[in-house]
Amino acid sequence: MTTKPEVTGFGTEQVRRARYAVAAVFAVHGAVTGSFATRVPWIQDHASVSAGQLGLALAFPAIGASLTMPLAGRVSHRFGARTALRGLLALWTLALILPALAPNLVTLCAALFVYGATAGMSDVAMNALGVEVENRLDKSIMSGLHGMWSVGALLGSAAGTVAAHLGTDARLHHTIAALVLTALALAACRNVLDLRSEPDEEPPPRFTLPPRSALVIGAVGFCAVFAEGASMDWSAVYLRDIMGSSAGLAAASTTAFALMMAIARIAGDRVVDRFGAVRTVRVSGLLATVGGLLVVLAPGPAAALCGFGLLGLGVAVVVPLAFAAAGRSGDNPSRAIAGVATITYTSGLIAPSAVGSLAEATSLLASFGLVTVLAFGLVLGAGVLRASDRKVAAGGVPAPAPTGSPTGG
Fold first, then answer.
1. Which residue, of 60, 117, 148, 368, is most buried by count of CB atoms within 10 Å of its CB?
2. d(C-alpha 346, C-alpha 325), whole Å
């Protein structure tokens, strides 16, 4: 019987603990998002903004994230991966308090910019550490980590739904949630890998264009996130307006999509380990394409509901694998991950409005025709994720992504 050798700088048990720690970090990150989403109506009323003004304000998280994500690598270089994640994640959990305090549109936009900036930087830091752990375990974990994010989002939204049902002031709700989640985040960060840059290593630039590899990988992530954003925001409207379904069945389409995504992400690592990232994404793309066609050609609400479920199943593992591939491409994984994250955040920003604009110009049916085409793009572009399958021959131990040197602990 042979045992896997210890990876330089970290013992096997320490890496396993780091895996659970990063999973907890992902869950905390998701819980913040879920907590915020459920109280948007309260925040809108408190800030006295119209639907159009709220739409403008809700663009600011993505703007803040896109502008600040490249800074995450520099923060990690300066303070070390563990300290950087601890600080960025605490800023993100505490930023949950800000939107509920905003009394008008200007302050709401500013609060959501900070909210998005801290979300994006902590997102890059935790995904980079997730890739590091995956490298050292020599098996896929990124899909499961993103599944934990979905679980956290579901838990956060469930707590937020209860708070809203009880009529709790969102300022009180989000303050309590932020303090609890900050405590959980700091506790989880104690066991993540503590990676530090070499003393003579040049710090990454503050702002830089993502490497070409990240652009190619990000294009695949763009297709998946576009389909995800369109389905999450428009599936209920589609069933109501195109299929003529009841309000309850229309709402169930969003639940079906989100549930299939969560299940697929949690189970995805075993599939990736067995079949590899490229084949997994090709099959996922086919499932998403079939789902899109079923939505567009559905004779009734039940078929469309199944189509949205297949779309959720098909796009679920793509973004985790895109982050994993970015973390193994080029000389600067943090920069590549930031590039992929920026592209996917941008896709999530434009998808709902693009679907709405196309629907207004043509029809919602045509909008989901575009979603189906982009889903098929996953089949065509799956090969760029081949870096997720790369192994190192020496001893079967994966090469750590060169983001710094381990300091132990």
1. 368
2. 19
Q: Which stretches of the chain score pLDDT less than 70?
A: 1-11, 197-211, 251, 330-334, 387-409
pLDDT value of position 404: 33
Is-contact 291 314, C-beta < 8 A?
yes
Residue 320's Cβ-side half-sphere holds a number of Cα atoms within 13 Å equal to 31
Q: Are 309 and 378 in contact (CB under 8 A)?
A: no
- Looking at residue 204, its pLDDT comes to 59
**The length of the chain, given as a count of residues:** 409
CA pair distance 302, 111, nearest whole angstrom? 41
- DSSP annotation string for 198-219: -TTPPPPPSS-PPPHHHHHHHH
Up-side HSE of residue 269: CA atoms within 13 Å toward CB? Answer: 15
Place of tokens 């229309």: 250
Cβ-based neighbours of 302, under 8 Å, separated by 6 or more: none
- C-beta atoms surrounding 165 within 10 Å: 9
Among the listed residues 103, 110, 119, 27, the one whose alpha carbon sits nearest the alpha carbon of residue 66: 119
Tokens of 395: 């001893």
Query: Helix %, strand %, coil % for the chain, to 5?
Result: 80, 0, 20
CA-based nearest residue to 404, from 85, 146, 31, 87: 85
* pLDDT digit string, tens, across residues 27-70: 999 999 888 888 888 998 899 988 778 878 888 888 898 888 88
Question: What pTM did the predictor assign?
Answer: 0.75
Assigned token pair, 313: 């199943």
- Tell the residue number behind the tokens 């303090």, with chain if given: 179
